[in-house]
Amino acid sequence: MLNIKDLTLAHLTIGATPALTIEAAAVAGFGATGIRICGRRPGDSFATPVLNNPTAIQALRTQASDLGVRLSNVSGYQFYPETRLDEVKPVVEATAELGVPILVANSFDSDESRFIDTFSAYCELAEKAGIRVALEFLPYSGIRTLEAATRVIQASNSSQAGLLLDALHLARSGATPEHIRIVPAERIVFAQLCDACAWSGDMTDDALLQEARGARLPAGEGVLPLFQFLDELPAHCEIEYEVARQDMRDRTPSEKAKVAAVDAVRFMVRYSQWSDAREAR
To answer: Which Gene3D superfamilies match (predicted)?
Structure first.
């Protein structure tokens, strides 16, 4: 029987500081969590500074260890046309000091060639620190599709570069779970699980962004082919539960995490039962 400790809590589900996210993951029973350690752009304000802050980094490491929560991945600065490598280097350094093995990367640079150069250099820094870089394609960003993300990863020539596969972004980019088969299993770093309504209206970048950051549905309550999505992932792929919901925005981080835990386990039990029934046929 699946245990909630087998799942990772996404920082976006909570929308809180790293410390509060770790605490919420522990309260809800998640075995691991992702954390955001800075704003989306260099220079953005951040409630609890982590970069270049050894005291904060040690406090987060101690907290996670004491609470038995593994720090799975870090979200740092996103990449824009003006983003420079020296601006994002502190993210790699802080991630290494935190002892976290995965860095999530997103691109909002429409010039793919320029981003490949920056991404390759970023991966080189991460590789020296023993960190994998998980590139996440977003259908409202500079890297909009699975194919584009795969192309960038191959062009980076980095053995540490891989993919973060989000069920929502896969569907909204026009792909199906079967398209995951084009990706070598070793290039899939981890996957994010959520559900969504059937799309209505214009599929603008802003509408897609707003859905991703605040209008997802609990797994099993929408129309995404999530059983098939999970089937196409490599065996033992890490699953992060990422459901940012407007109806939960006024709840505490721990309350959000508890609700997410119940929803995630309920769905994964259904998936396990479905898989067992299919095997029995």
So the answer is: Divalent-metal-dependent TIM barrel enzymes (3.20.20.150)
pTM: 0.95
- Angle CA(248)–CA(244)–CA(99) in degrees, nearest 5? 120
Residue ranges of domains in the chain: 4-280
Joined together, the tokens standing for residue 97 give 């000091």
165 DSSP β-pair partners: 191
* Residues 171-225 pLDDT 10s: 999 999 999 999 999 999 999 999 999 999 899 999 999 999 999 999 999 999 9
Residue type, 183: V
pLDDT tens digits for 177-189? 999 999 999 999 9
Q: Which CATH superfamily hosts domain 4-280? A: Divalent-metal-dependent TIM barrel enzymes (3.20.20.150)
Burial 135-160 (b: 16+ CB within 10 A, else e): bbbbbbbbbbbbebbbebbebbebeb
Please, are residues 17 and 59 in contact by the beta-carbon 8 Å criterion? no
